[in-house]
Structures are given as structure tokens and as C-alpha cells.
Amino acid sequence: ETGVTQTPRHLVMGMTNKKSLKCEQHLGHNAMYWYKQSAKKPLELMFVYSLEERVENNSVPSRFSPECPNSSHLFLHLHTLQPEDSALYLCASSQAGLAGGVNNEQFFGPGTRLTVL
Amino acid sequence: AQSVTQLDSHVSVSEGTPVLLRCNYSSSYSPSLFWYVQHPNKGLQLLLKYTSAATLVKGINGFEAEFKKSETSFHLTKPSAHMSDAAEYFCVVSGGRSYIPTFGRGTSLIVHP
Known about the structure:
The complex is a heterodimer of chains A (117) and B (113).
Chain A: E1 4-7, E2 10-13, E3 18-25, E4 31-37, E5 44-50, E6 53-56, E7 64-70, E8 73-79, E9 87-94, E10 107-108, E11 112-116
Parallel strand pairs in A: 2-11
Antiparallel strand pairs in A: 1-3, 3-8, 4-5, 4-9, 5-6, 7-8, 9-10, 9-11
Chain B: E1 2-6, E2 10-14, E3 19-21, E4 23-27, E5 32-38, E6 44-50, E7 56-58, E8 64-68, E9 73-78, E10 87-94, E11 102-103, E12 107-112
Parallel strand pairs in B: 2-12
Antiparallel strand pairs in B: 1-4, 3-9, 5-6, 5-10, 7-8, 8-9, 10-11, 10-12
């Protein structure tokens, strides 16, 4: 399989459930990202893992927990979510420069459509 | 620091007419600039990118963009719109040592028959 894959593609969960989103990239990249895309709102960066460094958006609630066990896999663990967390969650990867920075394009997965009841 | 402004939230054109989607940026570094397209319920796909080579960049599906440093602009154009071009378009700037690209708010392109 090539590119960036995400599973599941659709997820419906209750507010008390715990679930995880998975992302896998087959491009040999060294940076991976989680974005949240809500209707009529700008694309929101949630977390970045690059060259073993983690960068996070401080406005992301603690009910979202990322995990990056290696450069090819990225998870987003979800627990006690709220209805306003319903959105399309996009994963992306890119190649970061050895001196830092990302001047190469990002490759996006198809997203997981999450609905919280 | 960097930022990007997409000047139009919606652009409506007729099929066969030119498309212009406007993007202005600011960056403390020599920027890399990108345009992505997103069709409904899909991920984002790269249309084209500028990384300090030729200022006129050609992308997929007949799109192109011109980097104008003096105007800090990177507008996206296409000579003739097709119905399949209807989608959301994002302008993105990155540069320096940051791992975090900055996305514009998006422009929705509507194509009328």
C-alpha cells in the first residue's frame, strides 16, 4: 500500500467511550501530523511529531492523546469526548530537513470522520 | 513568524471561464508556498509548490501560480474552469526551522454549468 492511510474511515462513539485513530505512512517521511477539520472553521493543527520532537497545539484538550511509536505510525487516542469534537481528523506526513523546518509538501490521508453522540 | 491570507472565502465562476484564487503571505524567512485542493469528504492533495526556483509554478490539472515577492502574493490561476474543479483550495506557507506549516482559511470554488 502506498501514501498515507487512515483507519477507521468513519467512527461513531459515545461520550464515555475510548477509541483510537490510526495513521500509517509508506513514504519514508520523518514528520507526521494530526489536524482537525470542522465545518466552517479553519484547519486546526493538533500535534506534530518530527525528528523525535513533539510539538503540540496548547489549545487541544487533554482528552486527545497522540502516540508515535515510530516514524511510520501515528495514533490519536480519544477518551470522554464531547459532541463538539465531531469533525474530520486528517493525518499528514512530510520530510523534515535535517537542520529543522519543513519546506517539503505534506501528504494527507483521506481522514477519519468522527461523530460523537 | 509567518501568516497567510486567502482573500476570498468563495469564488464562483462559469465552466470554461478563468479561475483566480488569491493568496497573500508574510514570512520572516524565504518561504515555501503551496496550494492544496480538497474535494468533499477527501483529504488534501497537493496542486503545486514554490520552493525558490522558478517564480511561475505549474501544477496538476492545468493550474499554475506565480510567486511575486514584491507583492507577497501567490495567486492560483487556471485558464478555463471545469466542473470537476469545484472544491476547497488552501494556500500554505512554511519556512525557517518551524515544523508547522501555516494554512489559509480556504477558498471554496464553485463552478456553474
